[in-house]
């Protein structure tokens, strides 16, 4: 479980340095918005990111590693396969 490579969503809560955590994840290729070709962009909620080619296990490993490196407490996190996006 959690080893299939594809698009994933990672949603998390941290106790501090929210922007630093998000920026560190973005350096690993995570994005805070998505769009379909020729359509508008959609922004994800503040502490939710997506990646186009990772496993959910790797998503959790990435957020744990980033938080450890920044000295941030990772309060909760979930990573799921994301095959279809619909948003407002």
Short descriptors:
88 residues; alpha+beta; Alpha-Beta Plaits; two-stranded antiparallel ribbon; 2 helices; 28% helix
What is the secondary structure topology, with strand pairs?
Elements: E1 6-14, H1 18-27, E2 33-34, E3 42-43, E4 48-54, H2 56-70, E5 74-81
Helix pairs in contact: 1-2
Task: Explain what you see.
The protein is an alpha+beta fold and 88 residues long. The protein has a single domain, classed as 2-Layer Sandwich (Alpha-Beta Plaits). Helices cover 28% and strands 32% of the residues. It is built from two helices and five strands. The strands form two sheets. The chain has a three-stranded antiparallel β-sheet with strand order 4-1-5, with helices on one face. Strands 2-3 form a two-stranded antiparallel sheet. Helix 1 packs across helix 2. It starts with 5 loop residues before the first strand and ends in a 7-residue tail after the last strand.
